[in-house]
Design goal:
This protein is α+β, with helices and mostly antiparallel strands and about 450 residues long. Helix content is about 40%, strand content about 20%. The chain folds into three domains: about 240 residues, D-Maltodextrin-Binding Protein, domain 2 (3-Layer(aba) Sandwich), CATH 3.40.190.10; about 100 residues, 3-Layer(aba) Sandwich (D-Maltodextrin-Binding Protein, domain 2); about 90 residues, no CATH class. It is built from 18 helices and 19 strands. The strands form four sheets. Strands 1, 2, 3, 4, 5, 11 and 12 form a seven-stranded mixed sheet that branches. A five-stranded mixed sheet has the order 8-7-9-6-10, with helices on both faces.
């Protein structure tokens, strides 16, 4: 049975409006007798779970191909604008300068609020990458830090981007740990790169950030995980938002974008290593870090469908933003608009809506290989690594309790009987040890030695 489309106001679709010359983006101008329509897309190249609507999509050229296939008498030009966070994308959208943008769940809500406030309404039209437990956001500390749990952050300076998904994770995690986010920590409102520098300089005790910063800093040996966002067991995601006037004036263009996004999603799913290399080449990020998030069993699952679990999570996020006085009430139902993606993907949309994330698995990326190798257990992966100490580009293991993928050599390892179990953060490892008699924390070197 096909799910009932989410309630939305009716939209008048007049074909003549596609040919009207307007000065804002998404508009047209005459060129050699043929109208030229410029579509402006705002994206975040280094926020790599938006790549199917940004970096990867741009590199593949699928959107431009879909626009050409419209064959409606227009010539289309796509202008891609890259930003570090979602806030400037929202500012440009509400100024009428960006037509389509991608950003995280909390910035999406701010996008909705600002659009309504400034009479430039926007709508969430699809999803890019998501994690149903919240593993896209992580709190990290310096490699030599003595902090081992969130409770240790009392009185500490924590860098984050206020209003971001990572800030939402920090606020919720601190509350669950019995700390008041407004009084018990000193929050530093910083861009991710600035926060990374602050952590390295010692002017911040911890950093709470979104993909791909925690994984990047861990991979570089500049940080270690303190808290795995999946411990919250609340979905986090990034999505695509479009200006309402643009969507109404040019529905065929928006649908072309969403078809192209679905194509990029299929490409990533079918060729995850190649996709990671493409994104790495475009962003300067290590491909090993990109794969941690976007790989076959990565932290992010890519699917453009607007799953009910994600919409429900968005509704829960409103309270966090209101408490921080970043927004007032937000009508999530009015903001979420699945009509365009349903039409763009046709009968295949229902199948995508039902699809579940792939099961967690351990993986090794051999040097020079075009594919990774999967293993049934972390112990099997360790045995392989013990035999191939050279020639391995990266090794990944899922947290034994949250399922969050992490680098094998950066994980916290626990020995329980004859098994070695990996964890992203020390807190989850200690919780497992406390609940299992005889289990103990061991070093990665020890875990490798036992597997050899």
């Amino acid at each position: 049975m096909t799910p009932t489309p989410l309630r939305r106001p009716a939209v008048a679709l007049a074909a003549s409006v596609l040919l009207l010359p307007v000065s804002a983006c998404g508009g047209s101008a005459e060129a050699n007798g043929s109208p030229t329509v410029t579509v402006v897309v705002g994206y975040q190249s280094k926020t790599i779970n938006t790549v199917t609507a940004g970096t990867l999509l741009r590199s593949l050229g699928y959107f431009e191909e879909q626009l050409k296939a419209l064959d409606d008498g227009n010539t289309y030009k796509v202008e891609w604008q890259d930003f570090a966070t979602g806030a400037p994308i929202t500012a440009q959208m509400t100024a009428g300068k960006i037509d389509i943008g991608s950003m995280g769940d909390f910035p999406l809500l701010i996008n909705a609020a600002r659009g309504k406030q400034l009479n430039r309404p926007t709508h969430l039209v699809s999803v890019t990458g998501y994690n149903l437990k919240g593993g896209l956001n992580t709190v990290v500390v310096a490699p030599d830090s003595k902090l081992t749990s969130l409770k240790d952050l009392k009185g500490a300076k924590v860098s984050t981007s206020v209003g971001s998904a990572a800030d939402g994770t920090l606020v919720r995690a601190l509350r669950r740990a019995g700390l008041d986010p407004a009084r018990d920590v000193e929050k530093l409102n910083q861009q991710p790169a600035v926060g990374a520098s602050a952590l390295a300089a010692g002017s911040a005790d911890a950093l709470s950030q979104f993909v791909a910063w925690p994984g990047l800093l861990a991979h570089q040996g500049k940080a270690k995980a303190l808290y795995d966002g999946a411990q919250l067991d609340l979905p986090t995601f990034h999505g695509v938002t479009a200006r309402e006037d643009f969507a109404e004036d040019r529905p065929a263009v928006l649908e072309a974008f969403l078809r192209a996004q679905a194509e990029a999603t299929d490409y990533l799913d079918a060729r995850p290593v190649d996709a990671a290399e493409k994104v790495a080449g475009a962003t300067g990020l290590p491909a090993e870090v990109v794969y941690l998030y976007n790989g076959a069993h990565g932290i992010a699952t890519f699917d453009p469908s607007l799953k009910p679990q994600l919409v429900s999570a968005l509704e829960q996020d409103v309270a966090v933003l209101k408490a921080a006085k970043l927004t007032g009430d937000i009508d999530v139902d009015a903001f979420v608009d699945d009509r365009y993606v349903r039409k763009a993907l046709g009968a295949g949309y229902a199948e995508r809506l039902r699809a579940a994330p792939p099961a967690a698995a351990s993986e090794v990326w051999p040097e020079g290989a075009a594919k990774t190798r999967e293993f049934a257990s972390p112990d099997e992966l360790l045995a392989y690594l013990a035999r191939h100490r050279d020639g391995v580009r990266a090794a990944y293991v899922p947290d034994a309790t949250t399922g969050t993928l992490w680098f094998a050599d950066k994980a916290v390892w626990v020995r329980d009987g004859e098994r070695s179990l990996p964890f992203v953060a020390p807190q989850t490892a200690r919780a497992y040890v406390a609940a299992h008699d005889g289990a103990r924390v061991i070093s990665y070197a020890d875990a490798l030695g036992r597997a050899s």
